[in-house]
Design goal:
Length: 638
């Protein structure tokens, strides 16, 4: 908050930049309105809608992220001049995409004309430059690397070589088809993700976000480590909608992290817990941070089926997070909070904010169009706030929500456009099949080794990419390898999607944890290590997906797989934290550590009531039971 009489951030800018910021505000609101209109009417064909969306996003990014940021630099005005040229170039590219004759087939035989070739090359350059300003250089370098591979792949060793493509063929696929820049990734980002990011922004400005946080604290705040446990609940709810673990860590963490610190958690612990919980929002139905929609596009499996099979693993993940939070609170002797509102009182003040969440969940399960559901959800969020006097918002707040939604969607759309370049090159060159064969060959046919290789690939890619883009790239490259090794298409993509989340919580580049460290005033590396520990479910549960019937078995086998997954999570969590009911002895900790891996083995098995039950899993349960009984006996003696 500024002092009385001091200028606002916008007013503190030079006159030119003040006008740019005002124009950007208008453009952001207009983009949100355009998206709402398209989701309701669906008047524009895919190529026209996606190109209009992308050009709008690029121009808005250029306005908000100038080439030279320092206003006192002598290069600021020349930089702004270059920005104007780039914005005009983006508009020219959009015009070229809109006026291109996609029905004519002559360009496939004769090649593109010079104006179209120039427009396509400019669009590719803009799609590489705009993410550099918002997401970071890693996204740009990856896109550029794949383009160079498409152009000069014929000069590489035979193992990865292809015949090579000239500039015309590359531009033709990337710019004037739905296989490159305007492909599925951007289609999902523009058509679906944007609407739910906008919904998240409107929930925030209407006060729904604060209601969910207050409700969580009222429900869990009185218990041991209550604020930390309570932070998990709103982080799961808001993270599922927002599509960004980093954004959710900052927004929700602004409330939850200070309360955890006041209770007694160390700053790096508070940051790590919030980051792990916010990352879990990306795997929590019904939205899954857009993951469910992307998975449906790439697998051809219905959205409803994906959501249904995702519920159980997501619940297990949050059980593991809550278990770590509980164990950490026990180790430090932390108690719950007092003077908290009752659940009934909190619900009485904000129960109407549940309406938009119920509406979108029901409509999505009924297989309504996701963009339309997102639009209805936005209307329901505003409508719910207007139902009661104490939560009514003015027109200015709604405009602020429209602006915020567009701003939050910029990096997602730009990352997906660049991911479209990668996907296009993979399809054009056939490198995806070679990469899949490489994983199978290098792993020697061992599924566990293939999973490790894929986890490493997703971690490296995720260091510089948003989760959405990381999933797209890793899935296209490596999911076929998992299906070749016997996993179903759904299980393969679900594993890849879960592993794609790990860059948010895994050092050296734990993006969500570092964001939380900034809020908590903690060491980024210590926060990252804590988040990595608390988010262990991101690695254990995908393994259980691969080695048990957690996703695709019958009722009995899914129940057995759930029991084994819970046992594995308890074994690893208690072994890492060194606590069950009281501090673990060395023998108990060894028993816990040894028990965990036994749950991954299917063979040898014995037949029990017509179902194959693995003997190693039974051994693991026995070892876990021995550790639990030993620790409880010592607690009772104390």
């Amino acid at each position: 908050m500024t002092d009385a009489g001091s200028p606002s951030p916008a007013e503190a800018q030079p006159p030119l930049d003040r006008w740019v910021l005002r124009a950007a505000f208008a453009a952001a609101v207009a983009l949100s309105v355009f998206q709402l209109w398209q989701s309701v009417t669906a008047d524009l064909a895919a190529i026209y809608f996606r190109s209009a969306h992308l050009v709008w996003v690029i121009v808005l990014t250029i306005m908000l992220k100038p080439l030279v940021k320092r206003t006192d630099s002598p290069w600021h005005l020349p930089g702004r001049a270059i920005d104007v040229v780039l914005a005009l170039a983006a508009l020219y590219c959009g015009w070229a995409a809109w006026t291109f004759d996609y029905d004519a087939m002559g360009f496939m035989l004769e090649g593109l004309g010079t104006p179209d070739l120039v427009a396509g090359a400019l669009m590719i350059l803009l799609v590489l430059e705009a993410p550099r300003r918002t997401v970071g250089p890693a996204m740009t370098l990856i896109g550029l690397g794949f383009l160079l591979y498409a152009r000069f792949g014929n000069a590489l060793p035979d193992a990865v070589a292809h015949r090579g493509f000239d500039l015309g063929r590359i531009v033709e696929l990337q710019m004037f088809s739905l296989e490159g820049i305007f492909g599925t990734p951007l289609g999902v980002a523009a058509g679906v993700v944007f609407m739910f990011v906008l919904l998240g922004a409107l929930l925030e400005v209407t006060g729904a976000g604060n209601f969910f946080i207050d409700l969580a604290y009222a429900a869990a705040g009185r218990y041991r480590g209550g604020p930390a446990k309570a932070s998990v609940i709103p982080s799961a709810a808001m993270g599922s909608i927002s599509g960004s673990a980093v954004a959710n860590t900052v927004t929700t963490g602004a409330f939850t992290i200070p309360m955890m610190k006041r209770l007694g958690y160390q700053p790096h612990q508070a940051a790590g817990i919030e980051a792990a919980a916010s990352t879990g929002g990306q795997i929590m139905p019904p939205i899954m941070g857009a993951g469910a929609f992307l998975m449906a596009e790439y697998t051809g499996i219905s959205y409803g089926e994906i959501v249904l099979v995702s519920i159980l693993p997501a619940v297990l993940y949050f059980v593991s997070v809550l278990l770590f939070v509980h164990l950490m609170a026990c180790r430090q002797g932390l108690k719950g909070m007092t003077d908290l509102p009752r659940v009934r009182v909190t619900l009485a003040g904000g129960y109407h904010f549940l309406i938009p969440l119920i509406v979108i969940t029901v409509l999505l399960v009924m297989n309504y169009s996701p963009p339309l559901v997102g639009t209805i959800g936005c209307g329901a969020a505003v409508g719910a706030a207007l139902l009661r006097v104490h939560t009514r918002v003015g027109f200015g707040a709604i405009l602020k929500g429209l602006e915020t939604g567009a701003m939050l969607a910029l990096p997602i759309s730009l990352a997906c456009a660049t991911a479209g370049i990668v996907v296009g090159v993979i399809g054009q060159t056939g490198i995806g099949l070679k990469f899949s064969d490489f994983i199978v060959t290098l792993s020697g046919g061992h599924l566990w080794l293939a999973l490790i290789l894929i986890a490493l690939a997703s971690l490296v890619l995720g260091m510089g990419l948003p989760v959405t883009a990381a999933y797209i790239v890793v899935a296209v490259l490596s999911a076929p390898a998992l299906t070749d090794m016997g996993l179903s298409l759904l299980v393969a993509h679900m594993i890849v999607f879960w592993l794609s989340q790990d860059s948010n919580v895994t050092p050296p580049i734990a993006l969500a944890a570092y964001a939380g460290a900034g809020v908590a005033g903690a060491s980024p590396m210590r926060s990252g290590l804590t988040a990595w520990k608390v988010a262990k479910g991101l690695y254990i549960i995908p393994l259980m997906m691969a080695y048990t019937d957690l996703l695709t078995g019958d009722t009995v086998m899914m129940a057995w797989a759930t029991l084994l997954t819970l046992a594995a999570l308890i074994s690893f969590s208690c072994a890492i934290e060194g606590w069950i009911f009281v501090p673990t002895s060395l023998v108990e900790r060894v028993l816990l550590a040894v028990a965990g891996p036994f749950f991954l083995f299917r063979h040898p098995a014995i037949d029990i009531a017509g179902e194959p039950i693995s003997i190693p899993s039974l051994i693991g349960l026995v070892l876990l039971a021995l550790a639990l009984m030993s620790n409880r006996r010592r607690m009772l003696r104390a």
